[in-house]
Structure formats: C-alpha cells, structure tokens
Amino acid sequence: MVIGIDIGSTTTKAVSIENGAVVKKIKTKAVDAVTSAAGAFGKMLIENDIQIGQIERIMITGAGATKIKNAIFGIPTKRVDEIAAIGVGGKFLSEKDSIVIANIGTGTAIIEVKKDKISHIGGSGVGGGTILGLAKKLLATSQFSAVMELAKDGNLNQVDLLLEDITDTGISFLNKEATASNFGKMLDSARNEDIALGILNMVYQVIGMLAVFAAKSKNIDRVIVTGNGSANPIGKNILAAITDMYHIQFEYPSNAVYATAIGAGLADPPYITL
To answer: Are residues 17 and 118 in the same domain?
Structure first.
C-alpha cells in the first residue's frame, strides 16, 4: 500500500493506493506542514484500520512538502514535485493522454499533460485564497461555508457592470448578460449576498478564461478541473456559462479534489527521497 499526501496551505489531503487503485481518502485542515502530514497519515490509519506494517511508502507533495525533512514514522517517504503530481493525478482521473488541467486550490495552476510529458503552462494567484481574503474584508467572515450560503441568494446586477448596462445590444457573440466589469457597478444597495456572489463570479471567471486560453492554445476542447475548487457548485455554474460562450468543456472527474494526492501516490521518478 502507498499513501499519497498533498500538504496544501489550507487543507491537507491523503489517499491510500493499492494495485493502482484509490482505496481510501481523507481531508484535514492544514496547520503547519509537519503536523498536517502526521495528522493526515494518522487519521488515514485510524479511520480505516490500516496497520503501519501495511504501508510500503509515503509520497508527499504540495506547498508544505518541502518542510518534511525526514521519513514519517520511519516509513520510506519521498517528495514529488507538485506540478508532476497534479499532472499524474489529472491524467489518471480523466483517463486521457492529452489534457489541460486547471487545479483550483488557494491559487490556480494550469497544467498540460501530453502522453508522458507534464508541462506547467502558467496559473494565477486567484483561487480559493482570494475568495476567503476578500470575504474576510468585505463580508466579515473567514468561513467558506458562510460565503457559499450568502452567494446562493446573490444578485450580480447589484455589483457587476454588465453589457446591458452600457449597450442596447450584445457585443460580438456576448449576450447582454455578460460581465463587462467585475464589481464595476457596486450599487449602494448591494447586500452581502450580492457581494459574496460577485466574489465567486470574479474568481471563477478569471480561472475559466485562463483555462480557455490555455486549452485553445493547445488545440484542446476541454479542461479537467481538479483541486478543492472543483467541488464548488456555484463555481461550476459560472464555468458552464463560459463553456456556452467559448465552447470549451469543463470536466470534473470523480475524486477531483484529491487529484494531487493521488498523483503523488502514483508518481514515478524523478522524486526526492527523504
């Protein structure tokens, strides 16, 4: 059995892999890297009645992985480059050889996988961290669940400048409801619900357009979405609207939240042995 652990800046994910298949998965809140790795590993063992002797090796990746300098609990521990882990995990989950991946975490990474080659196309600091940072200042909450609850009843007309606000017709293939400027209207009557939706809309539109540009540059008509942000229902609706405009499909494979941990667990060399 192999344990793959993705030590992120906000959450840590772990998966157990046997015979090339994902068996168990868990997610915990990230603290410091060492505590997160040990906690995720311990939780995986305790909740799933796994014995340490069953573990062949531990494969770690993510922002906190460089902080782990030694083997975890004496088990052979190896560090995998995060870009490689995203690529391997995305390829495994999508079951495709040539893909573009948008991995939405605290920020967003855009990765291309072409057969056995994994390339970092680019990315953005816009992601889940942006949502929480703006929500803390604008909505007085640091709870993602609270942002989502507010956004359910939001009205973008209160915060975003739409094409219908500046023209009587659409522009090119864009309809009148398309965004002309995120937060470009911001009425005094805007409620917290409207601001919450505006934050989500801005973040996912930025991510969606970056992914569209990347996919089109590679002559690919779909993007595999992974990471914590892949499970956001409002975000999915925003990306679906981008699909309607630009004809790039966004796909959400099963276990997409755990893609990087899965990729770490499945990764072949090169990796760093601790």
So the answer is: no
